[in-house]
Structures are given as C-alpha cells and as structure tokens.
Amino acid sequence: MTSLADIWPPFAFTLTTPRLTLRPILDADIPAAVSAARSGIHEPGKSPFSTPWAELPDDELAPNMARWYWRCRAGFSREDWTLLMGVWQDDEFLGVQDLGARNFAVLRTVNTGSWLKKAAQGRGVGKEMRAAVVCYAFDYLQAEVAESEAAAWNRQSLGVSLGLGYEPNGLARHTWGTKVEEVQKVRLTPESFKRPDWTLHVQGHEGLKSYLGL
C-alpha cells in the first residue's frame, strides 16, 4: 500500500532531541497547531512576526495557517524549499520550527524561523529545537552557513541565536505589519556553533536528501 512518505518523502523525516520530536506537519496536525496558536504566542500588539498572523481573529487564524502549510508544501522544490516541522513534547504540540533554503546546492546556506506557544516559552525549548535543525543542516546536509533574523527588540529570539553561537550580521529596515522595524540579522557557521551536549537522532534523512537532489 502506498504511504504518505512514498508520495512526499519529507513526510518520513523526523528529528528527535532529549525532550522534543520535530516532524513535518500533516493535515491531521493542523488542528493542534491552531489550538497552540490560539492559546497565545506573544503579548497583544507586540508581534515578533513581520506579518502579524497570530493576531488574526479566530475565524481567520485557522484557514490562514492551513493555507500557509499547504503553500509551503506545494512550493517545495530543490531550488527553493521550506520544511515546516511541528514541535512535540510527548503528545503536546508546542509550536513550529522551520528550515529552508534557496539555491542550497550552490550556496550551502539555510535559514530558520519558529514560534512557540506562551506556555512552552522560558524552558529552553526554543534553543533545543533550533539546535536540532542547525545540527541537521551542518552534519547531514553539509550546510556552511545558517542564517536567521529577529526584530531588534526581540531579546528572547536573539538570545536563542547568541546562545548557539550566531554572530550579528547587520541591521535592516523591514515592514512589520503597518510599521517599520529594525531587524537584526544573525549568522552561524559550523566553527562558531555552540553545540548542545546531546545527540540528535534523525530518521528519513536519505529520502529527504534525495528529494532535495543532494
């Protein structure tokens, strides 16, 4: 019988850390993701996202999230890809960690983004899930650079980056909802990476690597 992973190989991909499981979001996971987002991600009016999607009314939030997950899958190509992974602790959906790249075969550069529901913040989860995807990018995909960014006021996100060894990589001005924000870009290499003291377990790497043409 044909499985989902036979149809779309990334569905077989899983990263496991001491506390967390990261795996691509299935349609069956979308309700859990919506519930986590509805429980709260940030303080009202202080969006850490350039598009303030988490502030949408409940009746708009769910379809908007679903469209985003479907769009990322539909647009996934070797030249431009974003892998959205749900972050689970036991049976609890905590948030989303993504890993993406453009022209990766040449540039060997990945980028990351994430969100966590408020109840999961302040426990080191954000650092653990980012470390997982960076470990994978460097050790399995042979990435040479990992990039990220956050609003300059977002000490929590930038703290995760600096704690893993990212270095400041310039400021930029971006539209942020209806405002303009200064955005701090950060950059990490295998040499500057402050590796965690745990071992990352990976499943489905060969299928994903082949699908990416690497």
SSE layout and pairing:
Layout: H1 4-7, E1 14-16, E2 21-24, H2 30-38, H3 58-74, E3 80-89, E4 92-102, H4 104-107, E5 109-116, H5 125-139, E6 145-151, H6 155-163, E7 167-176, E8 179-188, E9 201-203, H7 205-211
Helix pairs in contact: 2-3
Description:
- Helix content is about 30%, strand content about 30%.
- By secondary structure, it is α+β, with helices and mostly antiparallel strands.
- The protein has a single domain, classed as Gcn5-related N-acetyltransferase (GNAT) (Aminopeptidase), CATH 3.40.630.
- Strands 7-8-6-5-4-3-2-1-9 form a nine-stranded mixed beta sheet, sandwiched between helices.
- Strand 1 and strand 2 form a beta hairpin.
- The model has no long low-confidence stretch (mean pLDDT about 95).
Quick structural overview:
The protein is an alpha+beta fold and 214 residues long.
Structural class: alpha+beta
Helical segment tally? 7
CATH-derived architecture = 3-Layer(aba) Sandwich
CATH class: Alpha Beta
The largest beta-sheet arranges its strands as 7-8-6-5-4-3-2-1-9
How many separate domains make up the residues? 1
Q: Any idea what the shape is?
A: globular
Question: What's the gyration radius in Å?
Answer: 17 Å
Task: Report the helical percentage.
Answer: 25-40%
SSE pattern, N- to C-terminal: HEEHHEEHEHEHEEEH
Strand content: 25-35%
Based on DSSP secondary structure assignment, what is the total number of beta strands? 9
> Could you tell me the mean pLDDT?
95
User: CATH H-level name... which superfamily?
Assistant: Gcn5-related N-acetyltransferase (GNAT)
> Unreliable runs, pLDDT <50, ≥5 residues?
none
Major beta sheet summary: 9 strands, mixed
What is CATH's topology name?
A: Aminopeptidase
Distance between the termini: 27 Å
